[in-house]
Amino acid sequence: MTVEETQVVAEVVIPQEEPKKDVEESKKDVQEDCQVKEVEDDDNSKPKTVQKSSSYKEESNFLSDLKEFEKKALNELKLKLEEAIVGNSLFKKEELKKKEKESEEEKLVNMKETEKEKKPKKGKEVRNKCRKNLKRMKKEMRRKSQYKNVKKEKTEVAVEENGVEIDKDISIWGIPLLPSNGADGTDVVLLKFLRAREFKVNDAFEMLKKTLQWRKESNIDSILDEDLGVDLSSAFYMNGIDRERHPVCYNVYGVFGNEELYTKAFGTEENRKQFLRWRFQLMEKGIRKLDLKPGGVTSLLQISDLKNSPSPSKKDLRIAMNQAVGLLQDNYPELVARNIFINVPFWYYALNALLSPFLTQRSKSKFVIARPAKVTETLLKYIPAEEIPAQYGGFKRENDFEFSTEDGVSELVIKAGSTETVEIPAAEVGATLIWDLTVLGWEVNYKEEFVPSDEGSYTIIISKGKKMSSSEGPVRNTFRNNELGKVVLNIENSSSKKKRVMYRYMTKKSASF
């Protein structure tokens, strides 16, 4: 069972393991132990730095890049799927029920007709019955004629002799599934189900059938049009892209510390159903951002923030999350490229036994975990600074009218025990200078000042020097100059470790000068 959409706070648990000596050597260990990679800092007493897992790399969806056994499995699955769609067996149970219902209705009609025939009929009634029979015969002839024409069109609905409709337009996530249609995304979708079941064709086919049945019974294809009546956008939302252009989905569980929101989401069985439906709706929105074609971006990046999250001992939360994991893992295979867990508390490790046995090595290889002190550093491995929200140490802000994600970010390394400066030129009088700056882990002395070009002018202190703690967020400030000069940002690193500084700036000209 593959857990691709593990949005669980309390239920997803990864055991801690001893650091590995070498990334290349660790590949074998990962396959054996199924553990998340962590590399020790120089100081063993401090939190570890999470590095990219070397055991997982997103596979190509180009047919030419597949191994022979993968091509063979894909072809076998396509044959099974073609036969199932044309043979009308994908939704077998439902169709049988439909036939039984139609049969019962037909019997009732026949019984009524028989009762009518037992009664003496007048000439007018006989003529009316003849007309009805004639209309029925004409309708049947038209139906048979239409059936012959429909057979020529692969994507239209065909009608068998027994009257059961065959839907050849079956699709998932907007991708047609009938292999003979030759749609670009069909192979990509089928490969997701094959990879989720380790290229076992029968297992992958059964998974696909169950997913299609679930989507049909749950009306998932129309879920984007539903008004679910509950707003959980503060807990789950899409925001930006990573370095490989995967859309990023954030799961912020700390908001459920609010008792009112917690009750709305998990208080009753009906609330939990709405919560699940809301989560599926967000997943479908995320999939809309994907390009399910060979060479396209075909998966999401998932970030789960466990800061101040409710205890997993809360029954309502545990039930809802278990349900979410089960349904998401069974019906959205291989749609998450990586799961990053940030602000991970110590109890997270202690609860390993709850879910870890159900996770495959492939799923575990996609997991990255980060303690609070390493959140920004971890996210930067996968997401550019301009796409990381400010609350996580990046430069992305809501309704930002100054910078955009298109504005580049520069980086500076400050050696231990040294000082570096960032200079922002003020080449025009009356301009407004704007800048963003952050230091990973901070613990530095920082100040801002304006230095005029005229040696006779005085330096202006913009921000007095102060010690920046490790909990500081990114700095944004502005300065309007009345003379030529430059803004100088001073960063003094008095620690025994080097520091990474990221910054960007821009100049806005004033119309009044």
TrEMBL record:
<dbReference type="InterPro" id="IPR001251">
    <property type="entry name" value="CRAL-TRIO_dom"/>
</dbReference>
<dbReference type="InterPro" id="IPR044834">
    <property type="entry name" value="PATL"/>
</dbReference>
<dbReference type="GO" id="GO:0005737">
    <property type="term" value="C:cytoplasm"/>
</dbReference>
<keyword id="KW-0131">Cell cycle</keyword>
<dbReference type="Pfam" id="PF25099">
    <property type="entry name" value="GOLD_PATL1_C"/>
</dbReference>
<keyword id="KW-0132">Cell division</keyword>
<keyword id="KW-0472">Membrane</keyword>
<dbReference type="InterPro" id="IPR009038">
    <property type="entry name" value="GOLD_dom"/>
</dbReference>
<feature type="region of interest" description="Disordered">
    <location>
        <begin position="16"/>
        <end position="59"/>
    </location>
</feature>
<dbReference type="InterPro" id="IPR036273">
    <property type="entry name" value="CRAL/TRIO_N_dom_sf"/>
</dbReference>
<feature type="domain" description="GOLD">
    <location>
        <begin position="406"/>
        <end position="507"/>
    </location>
</feature>
<comment type="similarity">
    <text>Belongs to the patellin family.</text>
</comment>
<dbReference type="GO" id="GO:0016020">
    <property type="term" value="C:membrane"/>
</dbReference>
<dbReference type="GO" id="GO:0008289">
    <property type="term" value="F:lipid binding"/>
</dbReference>
<feature type="compositionally biased region" description="Basic and acidic residues">
    <location>
        <begin position="17"/>
        <end position="38"/>
    </location>
</feature>
<feature type="domain" description="CRAL-TRIO">
    <location>
        <begin position="225"/>
        <end position="400"/>
    </location>
</feature>
<dbReference type="GO" id="GO:0051301">
    <property type="term" value="P:cell division"/>
</dbReference>
<keyword id="KW-0446">Lipid-binding</keyword>
<dbReference type="InterPro" id="IPR011074">
    <property type="entry name" value="CRAL/TRIO_N_dom"/>
</dbReference>
<keyword id="KW-0963">Cytoplasm</keyword>
<feature type="region of interest" description="Disordered">
    <location>
        <begin position="102"/>
        <end position="126"/>
    </location>
</feature>
<protein>
    <recommendedName>
        <fullName>CRAL-TRIO domain-containing protein</fullName>
    </recommendedName>
</protein>
<dbReference type="Pfam" id="PF03765">
    <property type="entry name" value="CRAL_TRIO_N"/>
</dbReference>
<keyword id="KW-0813">Transport</keyword>
<dbReference type="InterPro" id="IPR056794">
    <property type="entry name" value="PATL1-6_C_GOLD"/>
</dbReference>
<dbReference type="Pfam" id="PF00650">
    <property type="entry name" value="CRAL_TRIO"/>
</dbReference>
<dbReference type="InterPro" id="IPR036865">
    <property type="entry name" value="CRAL-TRIO_dom_sf"/>
</dbReference>
